[in-house]
Amino acid sequence: MKASIAGYARATDLKHALALLAQADSQARVLAGGQSLIAALNMRLSAGDMLVDINHIAALKGVRCENGRLHIGALTRHAEVAADPLIKQHAPLLCKATELIAHAAIRNRGTIGGALAHADPSAEFPACIVALDATIHVEGPDGTRDIPASEFFIDVFETTIRSGEILTAISLPIAEQDERQVIHEFARRSGDYALAGVCVVRRSAGHRVVCISVAARPELMTAAMAQLDLGNLESAVCALRDALDPPTDTQATAAYRRHLAGVMLDRAMADLNGAKT
Ligand SMILES: Cc1cc2nc3c(=O)[nH]c(=O)nc-3n(C[C@H](O)[C@H](O)[C@H](O)COP(=O)(O)OP(=O)(O)OC[C@H]3O[C@@H](n4cnc5c(N)ncnc54)[C@H](O)[C@@H]3O)c2cc1C
After folding, report:
1. Does the beta carbon of 35 lie inside 6 Å of ligand 1?
2. Is the beta carbon of 193 within 6 A of some atom in ligand 1?
3. What is the structure's pLDDT at 26?
4. What is the dotted CATH code of the domain comprising 5-53?
5. Residue 166 CB less than 6 A away from ligand 1
6. Do the bridges between strand 63-66 and strand 69-73 make them parallel or antiparallel, or are there none, so unpaired?
7. What is the DSSP string of 164-201?
8. Which atom of ligand 1 is nearest to the CA of 78?
9. Is the minimum distance from the CB of 80 to ligand 1 under 6 angstroms?
10. Which of 3.50.50.60, 3.30.390.50, 3.20.20.10, 3.30.1360.70 is the CATH number of 180-272?
11. Ligand 1 centroid from CA 100, angstroms
């Protein structure tokens, strides 16, 4: 099937993109890497939209450190995240996550901004940025907004981005000297979406744990984090499983996903403590 779209416009800068979105009056879709959007359009899950291509907006590109924070432009491709020296040094979790996302062709086109705006609960970046306590920056007709990652995701494929707004960048605190960041997930085949996964960040303030593919949105698993802070891994695994109510679908039952999440936390902690599994 072919996509049904109302038109296509290539924005030259952010102001132009915002004007194009405003003109379309809620009937426009931002086109970034197109790896999720074009597939949805081709399947007619969405139709009749005006596509606003943001790929040529220089202000949405680039990675830099400023005032103790790492800023990553929304158009940074997954492959660029994997290779960027600043991200490797200050947010290695994001580099590790890219190895688990799909295949090379998708990683060459997909953007971090697109992955976050798409808000797939099976995607790696949303969970990572909640674990890293990032801030998401958006710009729209009413100006800019800075949204904590923990408040950005509302439900499956639903975020706090309003109609007419563009996600411009994310920023996050640079990793502390002894900080550890790991991600572990289980997928049936390499490149598939995970059946369950977990991101763990250990900072001086304590552990931060966020799961993948077991809930409608990525959330901090506070009960498990408290047990990890006390050094009780077994209790943390139990607390994690108790807190989860994953869906049953054609890929896995809820019970299997809950079990896997606990196994992934166990493996993540072994990795974090130096005994990589
Ligand atoms: C076969 C396949 C396998 C995949 N496997 C995985 C996987 O294992 N893990 C994973 O995490 N992802 C996976 N993906 C998804 C991939 O990572 C996508 O690239 C990503 O989710 C969307 O990024 P994009 O830049 O392509 O966004 P697009 O497809 O261009 O856009 C996605 C949505 O976000 C909106 N959007 C995009 N950018 C912005 C912005 N800056 N501001 C506001 N709204 C915006 C669009 O309007 C659209 O609604 C897979 C995709 C495919 C096709």
Report:
1. yes
2. yes
3. 81
4. 3.30.43.10
5. yes
6. antiparallel
7. T-EEEEEEEEPPPTT-EEEEEEE-SSTTSPPSEEEEEE
8. 17
9. no
10. 3.30.390.50
11. 14
Report the CATH fold assignment for 58-173.
3.30.465
Backbone angles phi, psi at 76, to 5 degrees: -65, 120
Instruction: Tell me what pLDDT residue 276 has.
Output: 55
Q: What pLDDT is stored for residue 37 in this prediction? A: 93
Predicted local confidence at residue 2, as pLDDT: 75
* Binned average pLDDT, 10 residues per bin, the chain of 277 residues: 84 97 90 94 82 97 96 98 98 97 97 98 98 98 97 98 97 96 96 96 98 98 98 98 95 96 98 78
Domain boundaries, the chain: 5-53, 58-173, 180-272
Q: What is the pLDDT of residue 47?
A: 73
Is the CB–ligand 1 distance for residue 102 below 6 Å? Answer: yes
pTM, whole model, 2 decimals? 0.96
| pLDDT value at residue 5 | 81
What is the 97 CA–ligand 1 centroid distance (Å)?
A: 15
Nearest protein CA to atom 47 of ligand 1, as residue = 30
